[in-house]
Amino acid sequence: MIKKIIKQFVPKSWIIRYKMAKEHQRLKRDFRIDAKQYDSSFNYSPVGTSDEGVKELLIFHSHSIEKGLSHPNFRGNFGKNALLGIKANLSEFKKRNLDKNLFEYQNTISVLKFYKEKHNSKNIETPFFDSLFDLNEIDVAPSIAGAKVHTNKFSKNMNFVDLEYFRSTQREFSNDAVDMDVFKKVTELAVKTPSVCNRQPWKTYVTNDSSKISKLLDLQGGYKGYGVPPTLSLVTVDRRAFIGSHERNEPYVDGGLFLMNYDFALTYYGLSSCILNTMMEEPMKEEVRTILGVPASEVLIAFVGAGYSKDKVEIAASARKPIEDILKMV
Ligand SMILES: Cc1cc2nc3c(=O)[nH]c(=O)nc-3n(C[C@H](O)[C@H](O)[C@H](O)COP(=O)(O)O)c2cc1C
Predict the structure, then answer these.
(1) Are residues 124 and 77 in contact, defined by beta-carbon separation less than 8 angstroms?
(2) Is-contact 284 219, C-beta < 8 A?
(3) Do residues 172 and 149 lie in contact, with contact meaning Cβ atoms separated by under 8 Å?
(4) 318 CB less than 6 Å from ligand 1?
(5) Residue 149 three-state SS
(6) Which sign does the torsion angle of CA 266, 270, 274, 280 carry?
């Protein structure tokens, strides 16, 4: 009743201004809650501060070693920081009496086993590694992790399951220049991605300018030691598509869905790819925006390096957790 009376006497523009001010307050409150929740769970210490934290740090450091094991220019005794990270979190894992059958433990000792075997096969001694780890513990590890050879025999007749198992992150490419028209076809497929209320808020910025790509990858920081990929795409999402504080995280959902389809579309059109995070500090992001002309209204979702495939390429195994760790029938 009171609302009706107010609506009769107060100009509409005032009501809109009031609603907007209220939404700004909500946004501040919700970000404070997000920050508090993130702050109380994220892994900020070098040794995990929760069981889950220890397990995820083991995966994080093991993957860093896996990348090195699949690197085209193998560097003996590489990855000292990651090995120290593994050592610290393995000790914590044991201190917490966690189950050694867990994927995270098995994957870690498997990576360590592969590290030792690869050095042995090249007759390289590993004094630093040997000082950290008990070789008897590693010896019994399953062969699930490390590096593996990927043969790029893609066929357009593959069904969804074949394509899902075929697609793998690749960080080496053939030297052939990419026909940039392929990105029109890739985008045509990727826009089939569903989005909230069909808003389709995504954009892509694609370049084959190697000096731009080098600068962007220097800022990105997660692709060190690899050659410059022939093309680099940046997927962004326009925040202007969203209404209200409750939608503040939706750009990342829609952007992530698009990104995966974009990556599959690249695979379908015969390109190999590596998705690259945009977890950079804000000044770096600003530089990325300047280089590619990305307005502040767009959030950066991820880069994708892509190029035509090499026939064979060594890749990180990136073993997956068992489905029992993921699927909860409730
Ligand atoms: C959002 C996202 C960000 C990633 N960022 C990087 C990165 O910065 N550097 C890198 O070498 N790989 C990066 N990757 C590739 C992952 O390491 C890879 O997808 C993961 O190990 C699984 O392997 P697979 O893609 O071969 O199945 C990223 C992947 C995703 C999805």
Answers:
(1) yes
(2) yes
(3) no
(4) yes
(5) strand
(6) negative
| Cβ atoms of residues 154 and 187 within 8 Å | no
Please give the single-letter amino acid code of residue 8.
Q
Ligand 1 pocket residue status of 106, Cβ below 6 Å? no
Report the distance separating Cα 276 and Cα 72, nearest Å.
Answer: 18
The best mutation among 275, 309, 320 to test binding of ligand 1, ranked by most ligand atoms within 8 Å of the C-beta, falls on 275
* Crossing angle (nearest 10°) for helices 182-190 and 250-268: 130
pLDDT values of the chain reduced to their tens digit, one per residue, 330 residues? 777 787 788 889 998 999 999 999 999 999 999 999 999 999 889 999 999 999 999 999 999 999 999 998 999 999 999 999 999 999 999 999 999 999 999 999 999 999 999 999 999 999 999 999 999 999 999 999 999 999 999 888 999 999 999 999 999 999 999 999 999 999 999 999 999 999 999 999 999 999 999 999 999 999 998 999 999 999 999 999 999 999 999 999 999 999 999 999 999 999 999 999 999 999 999 999 999 999 999 999 999 999 999 999 999 999 999 999 999 999
Half-sphere exposure of 324 (CA within 13 A, CB side): 3
Q: Ligand 1 within 6 A of 222 CB? A: yes
Measured in Å, residue 169 CA sits from the centre of ligand 1 at: 7
Axis crossing angle, helix 103-121 with helix 51-69, rounded to the nearest 10: 20
Helix (H) or strand (E) run with residue 287 in it: helix 282-292
